[in-house]
Specification:
alpha+beta; four-stranded antiparallel beta sheet
């Protein structure tokens, strides 16, 4: 048989037992029948009261906890002859990094050698801790965690002209150790709002914690998972900028983020409920009102602890926070892209160059309002000013292969300058080659080939060959090369080469007269 521990009668019944005994003079059996309890239990209760020196009426000012302590001193967990530890001090000290109950007990024993042993010391603290509010009960290290979430309730904002109502969403952030809170209203729970709220929250607290604990909202967590949640790349980028770790709460486990749940409840009760009868026509006005009530909430005294959220934050959390970075995080969108064969990647219908060696490789793009960065295996390989519009190409010459660089250096004036280093005839030949093409670029290769002949032939021979080709009207690279290969450049030009010869006059050759006379013509 298993014996169950008998439940102690309530303090209210104890008071009634004393009243019925000392005021009405009833017996233990009569009192027992009145409360449906055994007369033995009534006798034991009266005996406890007698040993404690209590009768009826009770001493003025004695409350239920004092009466219970008198009757059941062992239930309070301590001996009145021993020094009771300062529970409020213990609770605050446990919030500091590295502080444990073992350390606090050793310090307590150093001051009170006859005090409680370690087991009883811990039992006393746990018993006292249970009486705290849930938002204060959890023991968090100072400056360690910041809990963030959006409140379940929204607040209506009216358009000043049309009267259209738009719902504002309330972002809430709560410090782990002190429960110091921050709140603001935004239009949406999208990624830009989520990120900007974090930035302003960090600035409100004046520093950053080691860990941020969000709920599994889509702006923060792309794929919720109990063991390996997939954090949004932009959110992870924010965490890297501020030097914090993002550890989402377990899915379906509200106790893992009880701080922010309690903080949301406080914001809804002490801020949103307080504003229920006010009408706002802009988000800025709503945030001004929220800010005023938020200061009041953080200054409200605790009911079971000394001080307020603000005083606890100033003494515990704030000294442990890491400093803010020099600049606020700039919102950035991350996406993946594959490098095209022209060594450009596409982002928002515009194209940005990366090193040509990455053709066909996948890169990560980080897009801010002003810049576009490309990263390959975590290393930044390109950075460009962001373009707006469609079909814009932005190219860094350093990303081109050498052959493309040389080609892009070609232009008519530069090619002619290069040709002049050989001589005026070479320059004239180059100019005529480009002039006779539908577009100058079509003659670039011919001109470069012409100039390259100077590596195989002396400038004098190339000049002579170009002069002969110009005279003959043979404006091509192949003509000059043929002249040089056949050593024609060294021979003097014949008279018939210099001028156009007269037309041949012979009766067998039909001239214009033949056609003008109907084709009747004979020698």
């Amino acid at each position: 048989m298993v014996w169950k521990k008998r439940k102690r009668i309530s303090v209210r019944k104890i008071k009634e037992i004393l009243r019925l005994k000392y005021e009405l003079g009833l017996t233990a059996r009569q009192i027992g029948r009145s409360f449906s309890i055994s007369h033995a239990t009534v006798m034991k209760t009266l005996k406890r009261a007698e040993n404690a020196g209590l009768t009826w009426p009770l001493p003025e000012g004695m409350d239920d906890s004092q009466l219970e302590q008198k009757l059941y001193p062992s239930s309070a967990g301590y001996n009145t002859s021993k020094s009771l530890p300062d529970m409020v001090w213990i609770h605050k000290e446990l919030s500091k990094p590295g502080v444990t109950l073992q350390l606090l007990w050793e310090e307590y024993k150093a001051d009170h050698p006859a005090g409680y042993q370690y087991t009883q010391f811990c039992k006393l603290y746990r018993h006292w801790e249970k009486k705290l509010d849930p938002v204060l009960r959890q023991t968090h290290k100072a400056g360690e965690k910041l809990f963030v979430d959006f409140a379940g309730r929204t607040y209506p904002v009216h358009h000043p002209k049309t009267g259209e109502i738009r719902e504002a969403h309330i972002f809430v952030a709560v410090m782990g150790a002190s429960s110091y809170a921050y709140a603001e209203a935004v239009w949406s729970e999208d990624l830009p709002s989520w990120i900007s709220c974090h930035c302003r929250a960090f600035e409100y607290f004046g520093g950053v914690t080691q860990i941020v604990v969000p709920d599994n909202l889509k702006p923060g967590v792309r794929k919720p998972c109990r063991y390996e949640p997939d954090v949004n790349p932009t959110y992870q980028d924010l965490a890297s900028h501020y030097g914090v770790a993002v550890i989402p709460a377990w899915v379906g486990k509200p106790k893992h983020k009880a701080k922010v749940e309690s903080g949301v409840l406080l914001v809804e009760r002490w801020i949103l409920a307080a504003l229920r009868n006010r009408t706002f026509f802009s988000l800025s006005r709503l945030n001004e009102a929220i800010s005023e009530l938020l200061e009041r909430l953080n200054d409200r005294p605790f009911k079971k602890l000394d001080g307020s959220r603000r005083s606890l934050f100033e003494s515990i959390d704030k000294p442990a926070l890491k400093p803010l970075p020099p600049e606020r995080y700039e919102f950035a969108i991350w996406k993946k892209a594959r490098v095209n064969i022209d060594y450009h990647v596409e982002a928002d219908h515009n194209y940005y160059s990366v090193p040509y060696q990455l053709v066909k490789e996948e890169v990560d793009l980080r897009l801010t309002a002003a810049t576009v960065e490309a990263l390959h295996k975590g290393k930044r390989v390109a950075s460009h000013k962001r373009a707006y519009g469609k079909g814009v190409y932005i190219t860094n010459d350093a990303h081109r292969p050498d052959s493309h660089k040389r080609y892009l250096e070609w232009n008519p004036s530069r090619i002619i300058r290069w040709a002049k280093t050989v001589g005026p005839n070479t320059a004239m030949m180059s100019r005529r080659i480009m002039e006779l093409r539908p577009h100058p670029e079509q003659g670039f290769r011919s001109c470069m080939g012409l100039i390259s002949l100077s590596r195989h032939y002396s400038p004098e021979r190339l000049e002579a060959a170009c002069h002969r080709a110009i005279t003959l009207g043979a404006f091509s690279y192949k003509s000059v090369k043929s002249i040089l290969q056949n050593n024609i450049d060294g021979f003097p030009m014949e008279e018939d080469e210099r001028e156009n010869p007269p037309p041949i006059d012979h009766c067998n050759i039909r001239g214009p007269q033949y056609y003008s006379h109907g084709g009747d013509h004979s020698c």
